[in-house]
Each structure stands twice: as structure tokens, then as C-alpha cells.
Design a protein that fits this description.
The protein is an alpha/beta fold. It has one domain (38-273): TIM Barrel. Helices cover 41% and strands 14% of the residues. It contains eight helices and twelve strands. The protein has helices at residues 2-33, 54-66, 80-83, 86-94, 129-147, 207-219, 241-253, 263-273; strands at residues 43-50, 72-75, 98-101, 154-155, 162-163, 166-167, 179-180, 200-201, 223-228, 230-231, 238-239, 258-260. A hairpin with a 2-residue loop joins strand 5 and strand 6 (166-167). The longest helix is centred in the first third of the chain and has 32 residues, at 2-33. It is globular, with a radius of gyration of 24 Å.
């Protein structure tokens, strides 16, 4: 009886020692694979909103504030929603939201399919490079008059990059921290192209779909930029306000692992850390 108990206790001891050894060797390996390169978190999320809509001031910014998140709002300089609501945009900027540059007149290439909304005055294919650059800088002057800031990011209207086969942003690189494009992609910090930062366009998306995109960014230790227009209406490209709220709710619950910040702050962070 004593002998069998002795054998049993020896076997248990060996099992315990094996478990301890496995833990000691596997725990450091796990810690090394868990990347927290994004301001101490696993990934970064940037929430961007295009075209300076009333709904952004009336619904989106209050909702973001309620979750203590800051967004990037790409304003069209000539929009009446800008000129008629300057005090509200100024107040949003003071609380940490970014006012980004979406040009003066939102020019798009009218020669492409589905561009019936483009007028002769807003047809990028008829612009000179000098005009595209000048109007963008005029918008920067307007935005500085609103928020007093000199650092901000740019967003290509309609995702169109060129006029007369020239990438006009080449002449604006020193004016911005980065330019947001419209092509999706999860990139490493070292792979970011500041002239065309990837983004995930949202139209009719559910919270479940958007959360899955965030989780993919986390899995890849990357970052994700969301591109919104209407949120609860006011634009043909739209997501439901409640789906937007559910996304924010998820991000709030995951705040220990997910860094939510403006485009300008994430762009500056990448620049400072991508060569480390």
C-alpha cells in the first residue's frame, strides 16, 4: 500500500514539474508574440467622416464625446455647413476632434462612370495642378482660422489622385501629416504610404461587419481607418446611427487593447515610430 502510494505521489510530482516547465517556457514566448506597438495597445482605430455634414455636428460628435473618442472630420471649404456653423466646428476642434482638409470644392474626375454629380466647375480632369494645389491651401487657411492649428491631414475627394496625369498631392506633402485614400488594407507600421493611407469605406455596414474589420487589424497588429459619410442620414453613402453606436460601444469595451485616435495623431505616431 505504501509502495503504491509512493509511486502515485512520484507520478503526480512529475506531472506538476512538467506543467511548471511548460508554463515557464511558453509564457515568455506568448508575451513576445503579443505586439503592443500602437501607443501601448494592440492596434489603432481612426474614425473619419467626409463632406462636412450637419449630422456630423448634430449626432456624430455628441456620440463620440459620450464615449470619450475623437474623430477626424474632412471639411469641404466651400460647404455652407462649414461657413454657417463655424462656432460649432471650432468647439469640436477645441475638444480634440481633427478638422481635416477635403479641398475647397470637392473636385472629382467627371470622366469616370457614375460621376453624373460632377459639374464643370468641380471636374478634377479639367483642373490644372496649380489650381488643385491653390484651392487645397486656401482650405488649409480657412481651417486654421477656425481651429488655430497648423497640423492636419488631407483626404482625396472621391479617392481621385491626379489631374492631367499628375499626382497633385506631390506638391502638398509638406502641408500635411498624411493623405487618406480610399483603398482598404492592413499594413505594418513600416509599410504605410503617407501619400495614400489605406481606409475602409463604409456604406450600409453593420456593427458586426465593422467590428470584424477591427479584429482583423488587431490580429495583424496593424491599424484601421474607417471612412464614413452619412451616419443616420443626410448622404447617399450612409450607415445606421445605431450601428455606429454599437461600434463605439465595442471600442469602449476594448479600450485596454485598442487605441482610438485622430488621423493626424496616428500619422504622427507612425512617423515617429516606424523606423524603431
Amino acid at each position: 500500500m505504501t509502495k503504491s502510494l509512493y509511486k502515485l505521489s512520484n507520478r503526480n510530482l512529475k506531472n506538476i514539474l512538467t506543467a511548471v516547465i511548460v508554463y515557464l517556457f511558453s509564457a515568455p514566448a506568448y508575451a513576445q508574440t503579443e505586439s503592443r506597438n500602437w501607443n501601448g495597445k494592440k492596434c489603432a482605430v481612426v474614425l473619419t467622416y467626409d463632406d462636412a455634414l450637419n449630422i456630423h455636428l448634430d449626432k456624430v460628435i455628441p456620440m463620440l464625446d459620450s464615449y470619450q473618442f475623437k474623430g477626424t472630420f474632412y471639411l469641404i471649404g466651400s460647404s455652407p455647413v462649414v461657413s454657417e456653423r463655424i462656432p460649432e466646428w471650432r468647439a469640436a476642434a477645441k475638444t480634440g476632434h481633427e478638422l481635416g482638409n477635403h479641398t475647397l470644392n470637392h473636385p472629382c474626375n467627371g470622366n469616370l462612370p457614375g460621376r453624373e454629380f460632377v459639374t464643370s466647375e468641380t471636374d478634377l480632369s479639367k483642373y490644372t495642378v496649380a489650381r488643385a494645389v491653390k484651392e487645397t491651401r486656401i482650405t488649409n487657411s480657412l481651417l486654421k482660422a477656425i481651429d488655430g492649428k497648423t497640423e492636419r491631414t488631407f483626404a482625396y475627394p472621391c479617392g481621385d489622385f491626379t489631374t492631367n496625369d499628375t499626382l497633385y498631392y506631390n506638391y502638398l506633402k509638406n502641408d500635411f501629416a498624411a493623405a487618406r485614400g480610399v483603398s482598404p488594407g492592413y499594413l505594418s507600421m513600416k509599410g504605410v504610404d503617407f501619400s495614400n493611407v489605406n481606409s475602409f469605406f463604409q456604406n450600409g455596414s453593420t456593427a458586426e461587419q465593422m467590428i470584424a474589420q477591427v479584429e482583423e487589424a488587431e490580429k495583424k497588429s496593424s491599424f484601421i481607418v474607417f471612412l464614413f459619410h452619412g451616419v443616420g442620414g443626410e448622404h447617399p453613402l450612409n450607415i445606421d446611427l445605431e450601428e455606429h453606436r454599437k461600434l463605439l460601444e465595442y471600442l469602449k469595451k476594448r479600450k485596454k487593447d485598442i487605441w482610438v485616435a485622430t488621423m493626424v495623431d496616428v500619422a504622427k505616431y507612425i512617423r515617429e515610430n516606424q523606423n524603431k
